[in-house]
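Example record used in the benchmark description.
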Amino acid sequence: MSRLKQPIWPRFLPTKWVVGCATLGPVGLARHAPGTWGSVAGVLYFTTFFAGRVGDVGLVLFSLVGLYFSVAICGEAEFRLGERDPGKVVLDEFVAMPLCFIGWARFEGVAPNWAVFLCGFALFRLYDIAKPFGIKKLQDLPGGWGVTIDDTAAALASCVTMHGLHLAWTYGLAH
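Model output (structure tokens):
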């Protein structure tokens, strides 16, 4: 894993800008549960910019760009704040959250959109906090990689869980 290098371009940005992006401005500075608020912002980001607009391929492509940005900014914020994966850094939750909803349109007619978004949010928070399935080990990756990839894995686990529940529900109703 030593091949994963922290991008260097954020080193040239002002600290105020790096930390402001990493905390999503005031969102990460919330007194209680900043990761939860960052995740709420991520759901709003998905519903505002992606849902019904770009399709699954577009969502994944935009997310890859966002994840790279998160790796770069969160890693630099860690360095400047002098902390490993500080709680106030919530850009990682924000950019990972939309990945929970890959294929969300398949749930239409099974559940209202708000229920799908709430389910994805709840599963993401569960997996992000509990870190099962080896997700916890991903935090050991260097710099912004460790900050961002564990949230990405939590989002993908949430997505797989929702699709699994959908299949179980559909199969259970059909048979």
